[in-house]
Amino acid sequence: MSIYEVFMPALSSTMTEGKIVSWEKSPGDKVEKGETVVVVESDKADMDVESFYEGYLAHIIVQAGETAPVGAAIALLAETEAEIETAKSQAQGAGAAKQETTATAAPTKTADTAASEKPALATHNGSNHRSGRVVASPRARKLAKELKVDLSNISGSGPYGRIVAEDVQAVIGKTSQPPASAAPITPAPVVTAVATTPAVAAVPGQVVPLNTLQSAVARNMVASLSVPVIHVGYTITTDALDKLYKQIKSKGVTMTALLAKAVAVTLQKHPLINANYSDQGIVYPASINVAVAVAMDDGGLITPVLQNADQLDIYSLSRTWKSLVERARVKKLQPEEYSTGTFTLSNLGMFGVDRFDAILPPGQGSILAIGASRPQVVATADGMFGIKQQMQVNMTSDHRIIYGAHAAAFLQDLAKLIETNPQSLTM
């Protein structure tokens, strides 16, 4: 018999603290294995945190609406109903502020020290095997069952070692994407369908606290200041791209998908632009994942990721992007859907912005800022004047590994693709 501390989970690599949105269980309630106990607001989304074992919610330390650092105790769970009162007594004796339990007649163990006997909630994401239990997304488990693949032999590539569907497909040599009509992949922990919180109305003279997402963005921006960057701009003629867009727009293709695809294809020729700096050297990712910045209605910024954008056809890419944006707006993205970008696009062209400098995201080597496409008077090859649609792009890169010549060569090839062969993006 044991009493366990439930810790604030690390739901993303950048999360330092979380806010309790709601407790789905009340003190004294029975908790089943795999059942949602608490909804936590991370820096990017609201997520259900599920239990990996059976027990009873004995005492809540951090109430709904309050925040706690990652790794801090937020509740006590008793293995048996008889231990509920013991857990309450320990909580009162030790004090919630200490975030620890005191040994009593019934031995108390933290989720870490007791892990060899019974795992606690899905709070610590390290290996993809927790106390003998393979940690994998529901989609990965379903796929493994269908294909008769042993998950225990797979090394997960998802956040913190979680096995995702792509890992299962890689084992059997499959690279095909799930059908567009398939239900959205929902890895654990499951993201709740909590609606986006309305923006707080500004009142003159009032200080409005940052929400969790805004705080995370602020931390990332400050971290970016420590990186020496270089800005390289380029003017791209978009007449051919605009013509293609008009032809396939009715099939659900978006301009964002076209630009992301063009960038991804060009990155194939310039792996350094897709890389990032580390103290050990230059990290070359195994895939090309294009993140696209999206402003949230309640403040803050999120970057849904088009994973393997160079391998997806333009129609699948557009469907994927539509789904990502819809779920981002209601905070339903999974961690791997916003934290795995290797290159970022930031497009303010829809606001009529000509050009701007984007701030380099932590952990990436480059970000491309895209301005509006406008009709411009230009000199033609035969010495005459003509009108062409042109847009200005400006790339911010980590100057520790990417130099001006590297950035210029990438932008030159990107412009060549968009100006002379955009039709290849549909192949």
Descriptive overview:
With 427 residues, the protein is an alpha+beta fold. It has three domains: 3-124, OB fold (Dihydrolipoamide Acetyltransferase, E2P); 125-194, Irregular (Dihydrolipoamide Transferase), CATH 4.10.320; 213-426, Chloramphenicol Acetyltransferase. It is built from eight helices and 22 strands. The protein has helices at residues 84-94, 138-147, 165-171, 212-224, 239-248, 255-269, 314-329, 404-420; strands spanning 3-7, 17-23, 30-31, 36-41, 46-50, 55-60, 67-69, 73-78, 108-109, 129-130, 133-134, 229-237, 276-278, 281-283, 290-292, 294-295, 301-302, 305-306, 343-347, 366-370, 374-379, 385-398. Strands 12, 15, 18, 19, 20, 21 and 22 form a seven-stranded mixed sheet that branches. Helix 6 crosses helix 8 (404-420). It starts with a strand and ends in a 7-residue tail after the last helix. The model is unreliable at 96-132 and 174-199 (pLDDT under 50).
Features:
seven-stranded mixed beta sheet, 23% helix, five-stranded mixed beta sheet, alpha+beta, Chloramphenicol Acetyltransferase, 427 residues, Dihydrolipoamide Transferase
CATH class of the largest domain: Alpha Beta
Average the pLDDT over all residues and give the rounded result. Answer: 78
Work out the helicity level: 10-25%
Structural class: alpha+beta
Proportion of residues in β-strands: 15-25%
Number of domains: 3
Radius of gyration from CA coordinates: 25 Å
Individual helix count:
8
Task: Say which CATH homologous superfamily of the largest domain is assigned.
Answer: Chloramphenicol acetyltransferase-like domain
- In this structure, how is the largest beta sheet organized? 7 strands, mixed
Q: How many E-type strands?
A: 22
Low-confidence stretches: 96-132, 174-199
Based on the structure given, which CATH architecture of the largest domain is correct? 2-Layer Sandwich
User: Looking at the structure, what is the overall shape?
Assistant: elongated
State the CATH topology of the largest domain.
Chloramphenicol Acetyltransferase
SSE order, as H and E? EEEEEEEEHEEEHHHEHHEEEEEEHEEEEH
- End-to-end Cα distance, whole Å, is 61 Å
